[in-house]
Give the backbone structure.
Amino acid sequence: MAGDLNQALNVSATGMDVQTTRLRVIAENLANADTTGSTPGADPYRRKTITFESAMDQTAGVDTVQVKNIGVDDSDLPLRYDPANPAANAQGYVKLPNVNTFIEVMDMREAERSYSANVSVMQATRSMLNKTIDLLK
């Protein structure tokens, strides 16, 4: 039984780790939502993406989750007419980052809920471990 509870703790901990990484990516996207290039026609910051994959934890013998890839969103970059900007091209347009703050905030809320769910599982598992130890005394 203690082995099963340790596996549950391990699964929750890996879930918390990947959600922490996800929150770091989201924070970087939000921090750079207005970062344009510094030279005429230069590309601005591109939104980063994160993907997960299932992974077998050989020591615990359970499926967990891990970060598969932190990539770059290749969607179109919006343009804004701003001829005074140092990053403006010859026609006066500046390429803007492809970061949508609304999407980032929604992703952040989802990551926070997933993290909280893993914390709840971890707390319940620790409580069960403590009760098991108390019974063995």
Remarks:
- The chain is about 50% helix and 20% strand.
- The CA atoms of residues 37 and 44 lie 4 Å apart.
- The longest helix spans residues 101-136.
- The chain has a mean pLDDT of 91.
